[in-house]
Each structure stands twice: as structure tokens, then as C-alpha cells.
Specification:
It is built from three helices and ten strands; from the N terminus they run ααββββββββββα. The protein is α+β, with helices and mostly antiparallel strands. The structure holds FE2/S2 (inorganic) cluster (FES).
Length: 200
């Protein structure tokens, strides 16, 4: 009987320890979940990117010739971009050959309009060239600056290609922010709120 009582006590002790371990584990999980939730709420823009960046049809692949480009406003009215078929696969490119890209054409130096050049002495491939102070952007490699005073690449429009129809849509805008809109935030979707969005 004494031995049974001892076993009961040790079993109780084991159950207590097991319960405490499980409770502690649960508390840690809840604490981590709480921190994650607070962090997420701090980083989430006041408006979801889908509200800032509408999905707009820009062109059909059949309408684009190599080195031919079309301009369009996005995501705000009056903010011009070009969509171009470069003829070689490019960073962020869509379409059967991965060579269709779109960029803001507002120069990141002082806001002049950037033109398209099928070849340029500063790039191995097609370029965006600003006539004002000579900034040159490499359109095959994310419009990185290869010449001139521009401090940042041209913002790239995120494109979506529909295989079944050949339609190409603008669905977002990557960093940096379009020249003239930077608020000091590092969040492009926040910077571009407040203007008049383009609509289909
Ligand atoms: S505005 Fe384009 S280089 Fe100065």
C-alpha cells in the first residue's frame, strides 16, 4: 500500500511536470504569434497594394514589334510608362520570350521624359536615354543606371501575361518610387496613394 501510494505520488509529479511543460510550450507559441501579429500590423500599408495597383490591360503580344514601344499611364493618370519588346530575355520580362518589360519614363534625375534606344554605347542591349543630362538606363537589367546623374533605376511596372489570349496586364509597380512622388517612405504603394488612379 505504501509502495502504491509512492507510485501514485510520482505519477502525480510526472503529470504535473508534463502539464507545466505543455503550458510553457503553449505560452511560448502564443507569445511568438502575438509578436508576429503586431509586427505584421506595423508593416502593413494603410491601403492594400491591390487597391493602389489596379490590374489594367496594356497591350496584346501580337501588337508589339521588337524594339517597338507603347506608352501608357500607370498606376496614376499622368504618370507615363513605356512597354517594350526588347528582343532578348530581360529582368522581369514576360511573354513567350521573356522580353516584354515596362518602365516609368519619368527620369529619376529631374523628371525629364526618357526615350527608347534599341542600342546605346553604354549598354550591351536596349536602353532608356534621357535627353536632358544624359542618364542612360539598361532596360535588359531592370533599368539600372549605366551613365549620367540619375541616382536610381527607373521603376519597373509588374506585368502579367495571359497565355490563352496574349493579353498583357499591368498589375503593380516596383521600387524605387516614380520621380516626384517619394514621401520619404520606403513603401512604393504608400507613396503612390492620393493621385487619381487609372481605370480600365
Ligand atoms: S532629368 Fe534625366 S538626366 Fe537629368
Amino acid at each position: 500500500m505504501g509502495q502504491d501510494g509512492g507510485r501514485d505520488q510520482s505519477e502525480d509529479e510526472l503529470s504535473r511536470r508534463s502539464f507545466l511543460k505543455r503550458s510553457l510550450g503553449l505560452a511560448v507559441v502564443l507569445a511568438i504569434a502575438g509578436v508576429a501579429a503586431v509586427t505584421k500590423s506595423l508593416w502593413t500599408p494603410s491601403s492594400a497594394p491591390t487597391e493602389v495597383f489596379p490590374k489594367i490591360k496594356i497591350a496584346n503580344i501580337a501588337d508589339l514589334q521588337t524594339n517597338g514601344y507603347v506608352t501608357f499611364d500607370y498606376p496614376l493618370q499622368g504618370e507615363s510608362n513605356m512597354i517594350v519588346k526588347l528582343g532578348e530575355a530581360a529582368t522581369g520580362g514576360v511573354g513567350p520570350d521573356g522580353d516584354v518589360v515596362a518602365f516609368s519614363i519619368v527620369c529619376q534625375h529631374l523628371g525629364c521624359v526618357v526615350g527608347y534606344e534599341a542600342s546605346n554605347s553604354h549598354t550591351p542591349g536596349p536602353a532608356g536615354a534621357c535627353p536632358c543630362h544624359g542618364s542612360v538606363y539598361d532596360l535588359v537589367h531592370g533599368a539600372k543606371v549605366v551613365a549620367g546623374p540619375a541616382p536610381r533605376p527607373l521603376p519597373q511596372v509588374t506585368l502579367q501575361f495571359e497565355n490563352s489570349t496574349g493579353d498583357i496586364y499591368a498589375v503593380g509597380m516596383g521600387p524605387p518610387t516614380i520621380f516626384g512622388h517619394n514621401t520619404g517612405s520606403s513603401d512604393v504603394s504608400y507613396d503612390l496613394q492620393g493621385g487619381t488612379p487609372v481605370t480600365q
